[in-house]
Amino acid sequence: SVSAESLKPSADSYDNWSPPFTEKNPEQVERLKYAIEGNFLFSHLDDEQSSQILGALVEKPIPARGIKVISQGDAGDYFYVVERGSFDVYVNDCGFIEPGPDGLGNKVGTIQAGGSFGELALMYNAPRAATIISAEGSCTLWALDRVTFRRILMESTFARRRMYENFLEEVPILSSLTPYERSKISDALETQKFAPGDVIIHEGDPGHSFYLLESGEAAAFKGEEQVLSYKKGDFFGELALLNDAPRAASVIATSDVKVATLGKNAFQRLLGPVEGLLRRTRYLGVKTGVEEMDPLHTQ
Ligand code: 1OR
Question: Which residues bind 3',5'-cyclic AMP 1 (predicted)?
Fold first, then answer.
């Protein structure tokens, strides 16, 4: 029979590599655990991988505002997790925008405590895609070296990101997002499976998740009446989250179904840019008892 070991995608497990280890005092360990607690990037690691990552992370205090941690175009060396403070992201997008006199380009976002950055160059062996600068005095980062990142996080977390990215590219509601915004959604998704006839959402329940249909088919019911059907790339479960209301319909799998779910916090944080679209693209041409109709499609 085939052992689990031989199913690993590379021969990495047979060489002598072991992750670097930086001693930490109990106070540091406490802070570090808290910093990565809510980060999806670390939620799919097994115990051994977690302790290897915790051991390999190195504390990097950033004492002042305005310190450049990453320069766009540089080679990638570290991946960073933000424990304290915040960091501005600048992109010098040669083709479109005239770079400012400081050469930084445009500010495209801010990364807060609990967030992370610097993964792209390590994942894709590409130059740094953005410049990252501390936005407050007294920030704290934890840095993970390139090799440990690739050996551990790429085989777990970022393999998932790559898998979902392909799917999310085909999801119409997300097509206006940047590839990077879709990547962040990928990191937060969880897959769930359902058999034909399974109830995915119960009318009247409180809403905790948003759903994207990865494969199979499902249908929405209000009481006994079917009001919508869903195919690959469709979404549901947004209304209860948008309106803080009970589930307005039940959703039932009509075949074997795989859904990718996003928890309420991630939904609010990551789908903000398409909230208007989510509110408008509902129930087109379907009698649902929901008054809201897409103004673009009602004529
Ligand atoms: P990196 O290794 O390329 C810079 O180093 C990091 O900035 C990058 O990894 C990401 O972790 C982070 N586009 C590209 N990189 C971004 C972006 C971004 N935001 C943060 N990073 N965009 C901002 C999306 C809100 C897209 C701009 C068009």
Answer: 119, 128
On whether residue 296 sits in a domain, the answer given is no
Of 252-256, 261-265, 294-298, the least confident: 294-298
State the closest ligand 1 atom to the C-alpha of 108, by its place in the atom list counted from 1.
23
211 with 143, same domain: the answer is no
- Counting the structural domains of the chain, the total is 2
The residue whose C-alpha atom lies closest to atom 1 belonging to ligand 1 is 118
Closest CA to 134 of 89, 100, 103, 92: 89
270 Cβ closer than 6 Å to some ligand 1 atom = no
**Over the chain, what is the mean pLDDT?**
87
Judge whether 146 is annotated as a binding position.
no
Nearest CA to ligand 1 atom 26: 180
How many whole angstroms separate alpha carbon 144 and alpha carbon 58? 7
Interval 13-42: pLDDT, tens: 567 889 999 999 999 999 999 988 878 888
Q: Are strands 131-134 and 68-70 parallel, antiparallel or unpaired?
A: antiparallel
CATH code at position 162: 2.60.120.10
